[in-house]
Write a structure and sequence with these properties.
Layout lengths: L5 H5 L14 E5 L4 H17 L4 E6 L3 H7 L5 E4 L10 H6 L1 H18 L3 E4 L5 H10 L4 E5 L6 H7 L4 E4 L13 E3 L6 H4 L1 H4 L9 E5 L6 H16 L5 E5 L5 H11 L2 E5 L5 H7 L2 E4 L3 H10 L3 E3 L9 H11 L3 E3 L9 H10 L4 H12 L3 H18 L3 H6 L1
Parallel strand pairs: 1-2, 1-4, 2-3, 4-5, 5-6, 6-7, 8-9, 8-11, 9-10, 11-12, 12-13
Helix pairs in contact: 2-3, 2-17, 5-6, 6-7, 10-11, 10-15, 13-16
Length: 395
């Protein structure tokens, strides 16, 4: 892993992590989607290996993905409602001021009661008031930006943060702070091990993994069915594993049955490691977590970026992976033209292309299993440099 700023060339931000508290209290802001919550959980699991007595409180916005990911791991959760400002007219944004003030007061109350030694922010609107509240009480603040194009909240918080960790080196130029380190995106241990265990690509009956993100994607669900119908009509033998998102699994499964396609459909996949292990080609969105997992598992992909993502960061993410030779990009506006089917058919029809893309993916994901551990040391080092203002006030 390489540092990416002039400042980072002379500063070891992980130095001194051993001096961090033995029983730290860590406040984690990660809102809404698996793309924010899963890497946060991955880091916290690594923190527990270094500091088994860590006390962790996750703050989110109350979406189901937060419960699905965090509850099985036993983490305590709190909910903070934060109004969104991006894309709103000035009049509607002004109307959100009261909501922002209420959210800030709630965040201040959380910090006072929990008395954290460290605040970690992983993106989403909830990070704004939580991160600001932490800094107001003198709590060290560490950000992790998963994407190649950071969102508004993280760009603003970076100015008051003690450290910003990056999932993509391309994001470095988007921040004004010099306290930046390229860490990569953490993936779960079960997924980081797949690259060495994964069988060769099965071109006789390939498994297509369709995932539209933790919340699913209606457009990608429809495109997957169109793809399946086209492949079926051309006599291609294949099977499908499809995560649809809530409320779409039954209807999608029935559509596959009507097409005569061997498909396993669920609203949410809990065992992603198992699904990556069997996947020969993934057709997915281009969130940072998804791309990190695909690289670690050595899964080639056709990426359909979500055009509505903040700053169009998914397109930037996807093009970066395509440049490494591990994926092909099909824009959502190109789905109507049949480009998705054409791209998949081209990949399945060549005995060399998918294995080569899988190799490139594994190369780019090399060392993924160490990312979380390094991030944990960086976070503990930032905490060790802090003043523990809230903890000392409470004594």
């Amino acid at each position: 892993m390489s540092d990416v700023t002039p400042a980072a060339e002379t500063i070891d931000f992980a130095e001194g992590w051993e001096r961090a508290r033995d029983e730290p209290r860590v406040l984690v802001a990660a809102g809404g989607t698996g793309g924010h919550v899963v890497p946060a959980a991955s880091l916290c699991e690594e923190l527990k290996k270094l500091r088994p007595q860590t006390k962790t409180l996750f703050v989110g916005v109350g979406r189901q993905a937060e419960a699905d990911i965090l509850d099985p791991l036993g983490y305590e959760r709190a909910v903070l409602q934060v109004p969104q400002l991006a894309g709103k007219s000035p009049v509607r944004a002004l109307g959100s001021v009261f909501g922002l003030l209420k959210a800030q007061a709630g965040a201040m109350d959380l910090v006072r009661k929990f008395r954290p030694d460290l605040c970690l922010a992983f993106g989403g609107y909830v990070c704004g008031p939580v991160g600001l509240a932490a800094k107001m009480f003198g709590v060290p603040l560490v950000l992790h930006e998963q994407n190649s194009s950071p969102g508004l909240t993280n760009r603003w918080l970076a100015m008051i943060s003690d450290l910003v960790m990056l999932g993509f080196e391309e994001a470095a130029g988007k921040f004004s702070t010099r306290k930046i380190v390229f860490s990569g995106n953490p993936v779960r241990e079960s997924i980081s091990k797949i690259g060495a265990e994964k069988p060769e690509i099965n071109l006789k009956k390939p498994c297509l993994l369709i995932v539209g993100g933790s919340q699913g994607s209606k457009r990608l669900n429809a495109a997957a069915l169109e793809l399946a119908a086209d492949l079926r009509g051309r006599g291609v033998d294949f099977r499908v594993v499809h995560q649809t998102g809530a409320g779409a699994a039954d209807e999608t499964a029935e559509s596959y049955r009507d097409l005569g396609v061997d498909a396993r459909v669920s609203a949410f996949i809990t065992d992603m490691a198992g699904r990556y292990l069997e996947a020969d080609l993934a057709v997915t969105r281009a969130g940072a977590l998804t791309l990190a997992e695909q690289a670690a598992a050595g899964v080639p992909a056709v990426l359909v970026p979500l055009p509505a993502a903040a700053g169009d960061h998914q397109t930037v993410n996807a093009l970066a992976v395509e440049a490494r030779g591990a994926a092909k990009v099909v824009r959502e506006s190109e789905l109507e033209s049949g480009l998705l089917s054409k791209t998949v058919l081209e990949l399945l029809g060549s005995p060399d292309k998918l294995p080569e893309m899988a190799r490139r993916a594994r190369e780019s994901g090399a060392g993924a299993g160490q990312v979380g551990a390094r991030m944990a040391r960086l976070a503990l080092a930032a905490m060790a440099r802090g003043k523990y203002a809230v903890r000392s006030e409470a004594k």
